[in-house]
Amino acid sequence: MFNLILFGPPGSGKGTQSEKLIKKYHLNHLSTGDLLRSEIYNKTPLGLEAKSLMDKGHLVPDEVVIGMISSALEANPKSQGFLFDGFPRTSAQAEALDKLLQLKKTNVAIMLALEVSEDELVRRLLKRGETSGRHDDINDTVIRERILEYHRKTSPVAEHYKKTGKVVKVAGIGSVDEIFASLCKEIDKKIAGQNHN
Ligand code: ADP
């Protein structure tokens, strides 16, 4: 199995790049944002609870997203690997993920961290808000709050994976294809290294 985390602040292009990466490397895409939006769409109790937090730009509780990821892993026992997008977003989620993967006798192979300046993030998110229908992309204050949450709670997740030398930074500026090429280069290097061992 080859499991990768696509990491980066809101608006850094994780969703766009994930779509391309899962096709090329035959991975299962696990986006907690998408899973939560599907719960909201289906008006489940979990979705209703999550919606009020998401609309404010806050994170939903760890146990909720960990539960969703655990079910998704169980639902795909034959997967060749998972691409985690928007997860883990806290240190507790990172620890839970490591344990879940350990149970499957596998681990996180690499964390690719997209780097984009804050002004560019806000610009992209407001632009996405014009067409996406996402409430959290329309309001400048909510966007700023999401970026603050990222600095407060999510950046420590990169420290967690730095300890095991798994973090590779990739510039998230340029065309979609240029960024995709940079990500693929790092993944191919990692796969070549794994096969060599
Ligand atoms: P973006 O990265 O553009 O903010 P996402 O779709 O990944 O978009 O997330 C949207 C919202 O869903 C977040 O602001 C947060 O409220 C919630 N969310 C998504 N993933 C997680 C997670 N792993 N832990 C807690 N909350 C999450």
The sequence of SSEs as H and E is EHEHHHEHEHHEH
Provide the β-strand percentage band: 5-15%
Q: Report the average pLDDT across residues.
A: 96
Helix percentage: 55-70%
Major β-sheet annotation: 5 strands, parallel
From the alpha-carbon coordinates, what is the Rg to the nearest angstrom? 16 Å
Strand order of the largest sheet: 2-3-1-4-5
List the helices and strands and how they pair.
Blueprint: E1 3-7, H1 14-25, E2 28-31, H2 32-41, H3 45-56, H4 62-75, E3 82-85, H5 91-103, E4 108-115, H6 118-132, H7 140-162, E5 167-171, H8 176-196
Parallel strand pairs: 1-3, 1-4, 2-3, 4-5
Helix pairs in contact: 1-8, 2-3, 4-5, 6-7
The structure holds adenosine-5'-diphosphate.
Adenosine-5'-diphosphate binds next to α2 and α3.
Q: What features would you describe in this structure?
A:
With 197 residues, the protein is an alpha/beta fold. It is built from eight helices and five strands, in the order βαβαααβαβααβα. The protein has helices at 14-25, 32-41, 45-56, 62-75, 91-103, 118-132, 140-162, 176-196; strands spanning 3-7, 28-31, 82-85, 108-115, 167-171. Helix 1 (14-25) packs across helix 8, helix 4 (62-75) packs parallel to helix 5 and helix 6 (118-132) crosses helix 7 (140-162). The longest helix has 23 residues, at 140-162. The structure holds adenosine-5'-diphosphate (ADP).
